[in-house]
Amino acid sequence: MTPDFDDFIETIVNHTDCTEEEKKDLFEELSIHLKLSYEDFIHQGLSEKEAEERAKRDFGSEQEIGEQIQQALFPYRKESLLFLGAVSLIFSVCVYLIQLFTEGSAYILWLIFSFLVSLIILFLPLDIFSKLRTKAGLNTLLLSELVLSLFGWGIVTEISQSSSIILTFWNWLIIILTVIMIYRVTLTTYHTDHKSRKMKKVLHSVNLTFGFIIGIFTLCIAWLLAFAGMNNASLLLLVLPFIVWICFYVLQLKLYRHSKVISTILAIIALPVSLLFYIIIPLVARIM
Amino acid sequence: MNKPLMYSAFLGFLVVLLVLIALGFRFNKTEEEKQVAFSATNLAEAFTVSENGTIAYLTHGGGKSTLHFYNPNSNLTDPKLTFSSEITDLTFSQDGSKLAYVSVEEMTNKKQRSIVRLYDLNSKKDTQLFSDPRIVREVAFSPDAHTLFFLGGSSFTHYSPITGDRPHDYDLYQYTIQTKKLRQVTHQKAYEMDSLVVSGDGKSVYVEMSEEANTPEEIFAAKQRIFRLPLDNPEQKEKIPVPSAQGDIYDFAIAPSEQTFIYQSTHGEKNGVYNYELFRFNKSTGMNEVLTHLYEYAEHPVISAGGKKIYFMVDKQFARKYREYHLYVMHSDGSKVREITLPAVTYK
Known about the structure:
The structure holds 2 protein chains of 2 kinds. By secondary structure, chain A is mostly helical.
């Protein structure tokens, strides 16, 4: 009889923020470890059932081990998420109430989204939304947090009180923290193949940095155009470079397994090609 | 933390969110409510003064504009006309018996139309003269009050993909009240035209517009100036020779002699914001001087009492989010500047 450690290991693995691929690797590694321990106990003369139970007991509780692995793989992620969720939640409430009572404007939609995203980030390390604790889920949340914080900055600039200075610093602390978290979530991986791990890290780093450059560039141009009084549909064209960048990013990840060279070339040309659209956009806008 | 406690805490946060949303619905203010709440007065920008000193002014509140009349020297009853649309311009006929005004109505297709109305102060009758898809600004009576002149911006589009919609292509129009005939007087399609004053003999009009410029350098150097347009040949415009060193002119009034021009221009700055003062220019002597020293935003001069008094509006919140208008009066030489306390205006 082969011991059944699957449920036991799955519970451990599900306590980590690994990707499906990483979880598979981790699953295999833990499975080997438990099976070796099981065989040891068999050699010591224990029955199969007893050996399975001893192997699990000696390994430790699923939750405890899962949390330890999570802390070892992604140090301070839990604390960072708790901090980010808390400061962001308080920020959303403060900005909303100050705007409402000093300027008379209620940004209800922004509050709902900002409050909920902050709340989910806050409760994520407490195992309430365990389904969202994947790399994709975390990054989606963090990107939403980034967009909402940038929108929050727009709301803060409308506040004419002296409190807007403190709120601006607070807002930028959240933005910087979120960007750091996005880098950390994307770049921290669990892989047994070290060369592949390094290559992918470089790929993600390059793409993320390009993404932020395009984002900052787009925001600056949008702000300048809005300042010049442009408020028509042409502004939506500014999203184009972003879409191009996303396409390049997805393409690189898809091609990575087949051709690392093509993937690298795509990573290098992603930024200039995306920025080229800032030259194309005015021409398209003129035609519109 | 155990799970039931965490779920309770999560639900608690959601209750807080619902309370915040309810507060938002309760305390959110419309733009008009904000203007009332954050401004020390409920006085609107447009006003006019008749020759005998009757002041027609507007207050806003409760989503409506109310037109009031006030004459400190007579017991004029206040008819209080109330409008749900915005009133942008007011003008008295020379004898002060008629008031023409422009209201701007929002159409269902998000476009605007201007409605020009006439109020007879003797019969207290209010009638609509005409409505126009153009942006109608600066209505002015002819001396006999048979004709109304106005500036019309015929397009409300953006000139380049990087600017928002603005009214452009301004021209001078005249409307004959008796025959209800509308005629376009000029065909200049001016980028900007403002402040219309009809001459005492009714044969010409004065407007503020940009100096002629063809090259990019000339466009850059061009200034807003006052021009006289003869009505029988409006293309033969004459520039009022305000010294070239003087900055742009944005608004003006003319004394009955048509030699003295009271105009608005910038004069220094306070905390990085330009001060807008009233200036006086005498065409025959060439003398140009600053008339007000309020270091604020003085605008819209109106000359009354045979040229002896100048009424003007001051925006004490200029360059800030919400405007705060106060009506002032002074002697024509700039002396005895004082604020007028209007009966229907609330001062916080």
